[in-house]
What we know:
Elements: E1 3-8, E2 11-16, H1 23-38, E3 43-47, H2 56-71, E4 75-78, H3 83-91, H4 94-97
Parallel strand pairs: 2-3, 3-4
Antiparallel strand pairs: 1-2
Amino acid sequence: MVTTVERYGDRAMLKVHEDIVDMKSGEAFKAALMALYSEGEKEIVLDFRKVKFINSHGIGKILMFYRRFRQAGGQIYLTPLQGSIKEIFEALMLDRLIPEIKSAG
């Protein structure tokens, strides 16, 4: 299972359990984001604490749904990033686009 969802008040936390580096994991990640979007969620927290690497299969999905949630009046947040995933987000300047949130609740 690539992702699971936990609720914290008005926020849904999408916990990512494996690297998003190929079509299969990318599509599973997209399906999870689409389900949250379709359910009308407004605030999503992406939790990449178990992820060591993400490539274009995941980054593209993040950007696509960032725009969709923003257009619907919502917001995507990140749990504090660490290690190589933090370096990837900083290199792509995604850390400037998507705010980190200290607590999901």
